Amino acid sequence: MPDISRRTFVRGLAAAPLVTVAPTFSPAPLRVSAPAPAPEAVTLGWLEGRPSVNVGSTWGVPWPQGAVPANSPFALHSADGTAVPVQSWPIGYWPDGTLKWSAHALPADAPLSAGFTLTRAAGTTGTTVAVTEQKDTITVDTGVIRVVVGRRGSSLIRSITRGGTEIARKLELVSLRQTSAGDDDERRTSRERLTSSISSVRVEQRGPVRAVVKIEGDHRRRGKSWLPFIVRLYFYAGAEHVRVVHTFLFDSEGQKEFIAGLGVRVAVPMRDEAYNRHIRLSGDGDGLLREAVKGITGLRRDPGAVVRTAQVNGEKLPDPATWDQRVTTRLPLIPTWGDYTLSQLSSEGYTIRKRTKAGHGWIDVDAGQRSSGFGYVGGVSGGLGFGMRDFWQKHPAQLDIRGADTAEAQATLWLWSPEAGPMDTRFYHDGLGQDTYPEQLEGLNITYEDHEPGFGTPYGIARTTELSFFALAATPPADRLAALARTVVAPPQIVAPPAHLAAAGAFGGLFSPADRSTPARAKIEDRLDFLFDYYRDQVEQRHWYGFWNYGDVMHTPDVDRYAWRYDVGGYAWDNSELSPDLWLWFAYLRSGRADIFRFAEAMTRHTGEVDVYHLGKWAGLGTRHGVQHWADSAKQQRISTAVYRRIFYFLTADERVGDLMHELVDSDRTFLALDPLRKIRTEPYTPDPHALSIGLGTDWSGLAAAWLTEWERRGPKAAIAEKKLLATMRTIGRMPNGFVTGNGLYDIDTGEFAVAQKTVSVSHLSAMFGQVEICAELIALVDLPEFEKAWLQYCRLFNATREEQAAETGAHFGNLILKQGHSRLTAYAAARLGDTALAARAWREFTSTDGYTDASPWRTTARSGPVVLNPVDEASWVDTNTTALYGLAAIQNLALVAAHLPAS
């Protein structure tokens, strides 16, 4: 890591900041180097190769400190040099006011180039997306479709028109609520339907290439309200579709009221004759059910090959007067099929049924394994394509088409299928008599579950789902519909290459592009690939899917059952324990692998929503690993930390993930609501806002990540975030033993820690939840020698000898573990200090302490029945704690001290 000079800080003024922030305190000097040269151009590519359909894309690009003015223009060119319209905006600033991250949007009507080049120059213009605000509505025109968004009432989208033809109307949210889980055989329970009620609408972005409208509200009926929602509508210039990002917040204890269905419903005008109306539902891969509302194929009398072929292809049929009249005169006797349902109740199977109309029997159509979650209803004069991302992965899901034989069909995309039964969020056991803290600690000692009555609640968790609605001028050919379905499954994503990400100093400079240039490097690269491939395959083989589960992995295997400990307390779902999120994102940053990106993306969506509270007294805290994602009573900053979301946000400019990080700026107040050490304190403790007991490891790093992100994004609370971030850094640096002190008394108003006595309290967990990564970024930004000294002391001493620890701090650190994971701290200190002895020690710690070593098997064993339920490739020696730490240590050590890697 290059040495960075210390100079007096001069605050730069950024053009068009998100918010203007005036400090109310004396800021610390910040590291300001000579301006780094900006690359003349950045070559961009598609994450998964050039898509078959362009639906627009948004991506982020980092820039070296001091290199790019905040108001710099950008231009985009396709691979053949053709100018392409692009919209650009800042999403992150360096402290000197220069651009740290820029976001860019590609229009949906841009040529589908194999790649693009981004330069700092004035760009070209093209089709624009126009936003017009009225009192009751907002109208968005992409140049292809015109969408009217409601400001009040139940319809989020009041109409979608194309070429003057109304394609869809009355898009609203719907939920089914019931007050019994229906455990008994007869399931005596009733359901009530609640629909969306809009409370606020705001235009967040208004073009020229991309527009975003944010809608908030809840579900209501007859004075009853529940399930608050946040929905964003995305529009791209030249697009024929609306992308919808749907988030709901679970404002229920989940014990006495249950979600029996949760969906998005839209009406589709049906203008064509029944034989010119079409239904399309996607199956496995590119599979597609192609039917007409009134079918004229397979009849006893043949209308003619031309007629039959046209209907199958979705084309307008010739005048019935030209058909075989034995068919024409009997058209009223052919049934019309108005209702279709595709139910994906597990990751392993879907079924399709249809009926003529309500009150009549359902007919089985077909079945398959995994539907891509796409459908179409309409006719030769226009129709609506609709799709849900992660359809089978987040089962039980369902697509309904109703009334296709009438003047207005309805399409419902069920995020939770009504056919699956009520969503059961009740706690999974009766407490087992663990009513006191001592009893709960005993439970922790046997099942690794930290139980506490009343804490296993889902109240305040959330889930986000992505949907797309395509306003189509006519029923498209099958290959076109299959291509649209693929864009729903994997939205085309533009990305910058690993070399540029690393050269820009993104995320603390803790990664370098994958490199197999020597046998020693290649061995580590092979092992990193082995570990990711194993987890990717375990998700598939163990079926780690489902509405609340998809995106997470298990914590620890059960070596006797050849399974994972899905039912054993804290050994079950991982909930970000020891930072697998960061391992995956750093693995992507250095490799550019699409499968790693998608895996990490799913984990970010899950852990940021499901494992964290967004409402109630614990808002801002996450839940420790367990059998249910919300079950454990340890509600902590280490799970909710913004460091797990930052990378996805800056790579994609995703507004919902931006919300999640912004929510955490005031999460220091959660320490007033809940003492994380309440079960093990030996002295009485009452939370005092001016003397809150906060750990300098997992607690502070979570707070610091939120403050840093808000500060660099220039968010609404950037001034507060900057103040508290710098104040805590400054006062940690003043403590005689710095981070080794372990805990501090924090003033929520000033953001300062009281300077503690020279004490020693070190935990193996303190730095393993993003502190390494946050401190690396902070030290690169903030010129506080006392803070850097404190952090480097911790890095040097954690894996040092007891004698070295005691000589410097007054006491040794006790029996510590996770030495392999902490080797990256040694490597960081070696790089900052230019200490070759520390660099050599880091590699010894990585290869020869705990964790994975050369003696590990580095292979899987195939298991099949009857010893396992399903065939699996099993590696009982692999667990997620060790994997995450090995991965991060390998990646960061290679970035920091690769020159000192032993030859073998």
Walk me through the structure.
There is one protein chain. Among the domains are: 41-119, no CATH class; 130-294 and 335-489, Distorted Sandwich (Beta-galactosidase, Chain A, domain 5), CATH 2.70.98. It is 25% helix and 25% strand. Helix 6 runs antiparallel to helix 20. The chain is globular. Residues 491-901 form the PcRGLX/YetA-like C-terminal alpha/alpha toroid domain. Residues 41-119 form the PcRGLX/YetA-like N-terminal RIFT barrel domain.
Mean pLDDT: 94
Q: Give the helix proportion (percent range).
A: 25-40%
- CATH-derived topology of the domain at 130-294 and 335-489: Beta-galactosidase, Chain A, domain 5
Shape: globular
Q: Which class best fits the helix and strand makeup?
A: alpha+beta
Number of helices, where a helix is a run of at least 4 consecutive DSSP H or I residues: 20
Supply the CATH class of the domain at 130-294 and 335-489: Mainly Beta
Number of distinct beta strands: 36
| Unreliable runs | 1-27
Specify the CATH architecture of the domain at 130-294 and 335-489.
Distorted Sandwich
Q: Could you give a short account of the major beta sheet?
A: 20 strands, antiparallel
Rg to the nearest angstrom?
Answer: 29 Å
N-C termini distance: 24 Å
